[in-house]
Design a protein that fits this description.
Structural class: mainly alpha
Number of domains: 2
CATH architecture of the largest domain: Orthogonal Bundle
Largest sheet: 3 strands, antiparallel
Distance between the termini: 115 Å
Shape: elongated
Order of helices and strands: EHHEHEEEHH
CATH class of the largest domain: Mainly Alpha
CATH topology of the largest domain: Multidrug-efflux Transporter Regulator, Chain: A, Domain 2
Length: 152
């Protein structure tokens, strides 16, 4: 349903100048015919505008939509709710799986780091065993070089 500016002001319970100001500021929009759509009014003035949707009519009151649905619409709504619940359960299961996999990865990374540290320690010990650990004797002094004293 489309409204002229005067009809939109009456439906929303505000003055024409308020509707015009909101149109000028871009808060409301007009269609090609220069009329304001009811859904646009309902977006800005939800308490005072009734929106008609084919077979059902919804009236927004506070935070709850009062809807009179036909039986096929009720069946479709029920099916969609079941699909939504199934999708939520699947998302929850996937979230738990991801959390479990992350915990396993963290544990694996910690074990790998410990193994790497143990390997480095063992490598250092083996290197120490295989290298000459004796203290190097000081180079011979001047007199020993001169007189060729016997090596110890």
């Amino acid at each position: 349903m489309d409204y002229s500016i005067r009809e939109a002001a009456a439906a929303a319970g505000v003055s024409k100048s308020t509707i015009q100001r909101r149109l000028r500021n871009g808060e409301l929009s007009k269609n090609e015919a220069g009329r304001v759509d009811a859904s646009e009014l309902a977006r800005l003035y939800p308490e005072s505008v009734k929106v008609s949707h084919g077979h059902s009519q919804s009236v927004f009151s506070g935070t709850v939509w009062d809807t009179r649905l036909t039986p096929p619409q009720k069946a479709e709504t029920s099916a969609l709710r079941q699909q939504l619940e199934a999708a939520r359960q699947l998302a929850e299961e996937r979230s738990r799986t991801i959390e479990d996999l992350r915990a396993r990865l963290d544990t694996s990374e910690a074990r790998r780091a410990e193994a790497e540290a143990a390997k480095d320690t063992a490598q250092t010990k083996l290197t120490a065993l295989l290298t000459d650990q004796r203290l190097a004797s000081p180079p011979p002094g001047f007199w020993r070089r001169l007189f060729g004293a016997a090596e110890r």
